[in-house]
Design brief:
Elements lengths: L7 E3 L6 E4 L5 H13 L1 E7 L5 H12 L3 E6 L2 E7 L11 E2 L4 H11 L6 E4 L10 H9 L3 E3 L8 E4 L8 E3 L5 H11 L5 E5 L7 H8 L4 E4 L2 E5 L9 E2 L4 H13 L4 E8 L6 H8 L3 E10 L2 E9 L20 H10 L3 E4 L12 H11 L3 E5 L2 E5 L6 E4 L4 H10 L7 E4 L4 H4 L3 H8 L3 E2 L1
Helix pairs in contact: 1-2, 1-6, 3-5, 4-5, 7-9, 7-11, 9-10, 9-11
The protein binds shikimate-3-phosphate.
The site of shikimate-3-phosphate has 11 residues, from helix 5.
């Protein structure tokens, strides 16, 4: 079966049980390769996510002459070359489905001595890049994209970058991080101001590598011209991957599951806050800090969920978890309303439309709006769902089967491997019945 034909067939019913550890955090894994490569010395990473997106980042740095050993069971050894040690690639750098790789690397590569071209798959080739090219050009970068502002992204090296003070038009950690990475090389102090807090893994990890980052409220600044010193990184389990299990265990009566060693960075816990507001029974245990990131074990027991108006301040804190949250809303009593989430339309798919279409197929009353969705909780039937090649849409609908009356078949599931290799096996261990 070819990649795009990969289907999940999920038998209805079941419960989730046990103690599981989902794979490593995607955002932190990307940054570990980037900063480890730019550091002086050898960085050891454990818990690295061996998903296709992160392997794309890893491969990019190998193409730029960095020796990277692994991954072997989540262990990676990076022989850092220093901020000025990257070498010109001999061909375009293919980044697959990974928007994070493309946007962050666009910032970093804008400051290098060499030219390079960044390409991606069909989905990434439709995603907006002006959000990074506009501020980077203000810093003095020379970048070309398609006329629509989409990949391929051609970056001309040898430019001298100057610091900027940039108010982010969208709450985006990718844009923030892209500018901060370019700022490491700029003349002066580069500052970004966020309209709302977004994930701060770049800032935390830069500090972990000994680079001073000033944060004052929503304003974050770096001074160009410093250096990164190698360190070791223990990547926690990805809260975004636990979201499917949090929703599955919440909606399937009798479930009781513990998700181990999960990153609970305050800029990532919108999914917990939102599900708890809906009435979910989620408790945090054994809270600790690992390598500058807070971590906990998360216990989820089934609960009677109620529809809510999702507070807009939670949107950036749960930006990747809405497909799963929409499944929770479909199983909740009453209406759930999401607003202020236009960004969902430019993720790996148009997640508002893709989720609305899928929920409607399952007999749920779901109405997409320009910047969100309105979902009436109800009884889900079975059906055939198109994931549009979006990993999170595929995994969300797999969980929906726990509460559906008939089999759910999900098409185009190969990209689950971008963020969650081993999903089917782990989900089946926990109590789902997926065949592929
Ligand atoms: C990410 C930031 C988010 C998120 C993506 C990972 C990151 O994107 O959706 O999956 O690692 O910085 P935006 O910054 O575009 O919201």
């Amino acid at each position: 079966m070819s990649g795009s034909d990969l289907q999940f067939t999920v038998t209805p019913g079941g419960q989730l049980h046990g103690e599981i550890r989902v794979p490593g955090d995607k955002s932190i894994s990307h940054r570990s390769i980037m900063l480890g490569s730019l550091a002086e010395g050898v960085t050891q990473v454990s818990g690295f996510l061996e998903g296709e997106d992160n392997l794309a980042t890893l491969n990019a740095f190998r193409m730029l002459g960095v020796q990277i050993d692994g991954p072997h069971d989540g262990n990676v050894t990076i022989h850092g070359v220093g901020l000025r040690g990257l070498k010109a690639p001999t061909e375009p750098i293919y980044l697959g489905n990974s928007g994070t790789s493309m946007r962050l690397l666009a910032g970093l590569f804008s400051a290098q001595a060499f030219d390079c071209v960044l390409t991606g798959d069909a989905s990434l080739s439709k995603r907006p890049m002006r959000r990074v090219t506009v501020p980077l050009e203000k810093m003095g970068a020379r970048i070309e994209t398609s006329e629509a502002g989409t990949p391929p992204v051609k970056i001309y090296g040898g430019q001298k970058l100057s610091a900027i003070d940039y108010p982010l038009p969208v709450a985006s950690a990718q844009v923030k991080s892209s500018i901060l990475l370019a700022g490491l090389y700029a003349n002066g102090q580069t500052c970004v101001t966020e309209p709302a807090p977004t994930r701060d893994h770049t800032e935390r990890m830069l500090r972990g590598f000994g680079y001073d980052v000033q944060s004052n409220g929503n304003r974050i600044c770096v001074q160009g011209g410093g250096k990164l010193t190698a360190t070791n990184i223990d990547v926690p389990a990805d809260i975004s991957s636990t979201a499917f299990f949090m929703v599955g265990a919440s909606i399937a009566e009798g479930s009781d599951i513990t998700l181990q060693h999960v990153g609970i960075n305050p800029t990532r816990i919108g999914v917990i806050n939102i599900l708890q507001q809906m009435g979910a029974n989620i408790t945090l245990h054994n809270e600790r800090e690992v390598g500058g990131e807070p971590v906990a074990d998360i216990r989820v027991q089934s609960a009677h969920l109620k529809g809510i108006a999702i507070p807009e301040d939670q949107v950036p804190l749960a930006i990747d978890e809405f497909p799963a949250i929409f499944v929770a809303a479909a199983c909740a009593e009453g209406e759930t309303v999401l607003t202020g989430a236009k960004e969902l339309r430019v993720k790996e798919s148009d997640r508002i439309q893709a989720m609305a279409d899928g929920l409607i197929t399952l007999g749920i009353d779901a109405t997409p709006t320009e910047d969100g969705i309105v979902i009436q909780g109800g009884k889900m039937q079975g059906g055939v769902i198109d994931s549009h090649g979006d990993h999170r849409i595929a995994m969300s609908f797999a969980m929906a089967a726990l509460q559906a009356t008939d089999t759910i078949t999900i098409r185009d599931c190969a990209n689950v491997n971008t963020s969650f290799p081993g999903f089917v096996k782990l989900a089946n261990t926990a109590g789902l019945a997926i065949s592929q």
